[in-house]
Amino acid sequence: MSEDERRIINKTMDRADLHTDEAQAVIADLNALIMNMRARNLAISSWYGKFNLPGNPGSLERINRGYNYEPLEGAADDRNFPWFKYWEIAWVAISIDFRPGQKVLDMGGSSSLFSYYLASKGLDVTTVDLSRDLVDNANNVAKKTGWKLRNLVMDMRELNLESQFDHITSICVYEHIPLRYRIEINKRIKQLLVDGGRFSITFDYRNPSRHARIGSPEDVVEQFVKPSGMSIRGNLEFAVSSKNYMLHPFFYRDRLWRLKLECLLRRDFLPWECFRTKDENDCTIGALFLEKA
């Protein structure tokens, strides 16, 4: 077994992962990037896909951060980027051999901190997103920075791209896509990668919504590995920790009745779950790394 095959990279999130020298270097780069963008009045989409979150303690995104959330020490902008976002970017960055000049397709990442990070490191980045505002803003950022960053309004389910990529990435997008569509997307990814190209993603894990449905190593295999037809990099069995850092607001101890109704109308939860609350966090984030042979 090679060293790469022994690495535990396909796993759920652990805050301790950020204590390594490699992760600290990425964190420092992200903080510097955020400060530089702010100084130049260039907008970055928050972890919720919106610009400039208000930081209201009672907002859904704050509740989603879970009970007893603690900011990352020294974070440049915790209001918009909780430590979970640092983990996603750092974990992907230290698990992948990104090199300047490589072509990357980032699905669902227009105006994101991750796509900006890759572009700032000299990679040739293409993003696709449904939001015209996010795409237009990212293209404006590309003009002002000179980065190789192309942003397109495009549905991940209908990728219409002529070139192939060294890397395809997606950061916490798949859990928002219905199961049948995410499987169809993953069947097409291999065609867009060069030989030896890599597919690297993060996603909500154990999110209790009926539409998220990524809650076991078997789910990861059935939804991502098998449809893609690609090989797993690193550990073959998805490593799951019992640690949950986040909370679905539907189960917040101070019942949010309007949210509960909206979730029921979307069929995210079953009617008899409406009166349930949780006193502990219920979900986390996972990462998976695949390669085209």
Task: Give a verbal description of the structure.
The structure is a single chain. The chain has about 290 residues and is an alpha/beta fold. It has one domain: Rossmann fold. About 30% of the residues lie in helices and about 15% in strands. It is built from nine helices and eight strands. Strands 1, 2, 3, 4, 5, 6, 7 and 8 form an eight-stranded mixed β-sheet that branches. Strand 5, helix 7 and strand 6 form a beta-alpha-beta unit. Helix 2 packs across helix 4, helix 2 packs across helix 5 and helix 7 packs across helix 8. It is globular, with a radius of gyration of 18 Å. It starts with a helix and ends with a strand. About 40% of the residues are buried. The mean pLDDT is about 95.
Task: Give the structure's gist in a few sentences.
The protein is of the alpha/beta class and 293 residues long. It has helices at 3-6, 21-39, 60-64, 83-95, 113-120, 132-145, 179-189, 217-228, 257-265, and strands spanning 11-12, 103-107, 124-129, 149-153, 165-171, 193-205, 231-232, 284-291.
Order of helices and strands: HEHHHEHEHEEHEHEHE
Cα separation of the termini: 17 Å
The structure class reads alpha/beta
- If you consult CATH, what is the topology? Rossmann fold
CATH C-level label: Alpha Beta
CATH superfamily: Vaccinia Virus protein VP39
- Quickly count the domains: 1
Estimated helix fraction: 25-40%
Regions with little confidence, pLDDT below 50 for 5+ residues: none
The gross shape turns out to be globular
Question: How many strands?
Answer: 8
